[in-house]
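Q: Structure tokens for this one, please.
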Amino acid sequence: MTSNSPDSTHRIVVGVDGSPGSKKALTWAMNQPRLTGATVEAITGRTGGPR
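A: Here is the predicted structure, written as tokens:
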């Protein structure tokens, strides 16, 4: 049995840095909730000191 309601116990975390691979990963991740009911968290980061 599947459900289209968000499932707070299942999440997909994807790192996004602007690279082609991370864009593909984000696209894949954003399609998963309708299939699995999971939530998606996109994580970004930067290097370097304060601006």
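A few notes: The first strand starts at residue 11 and ends at 15. The radius of gyration is 14 Å.
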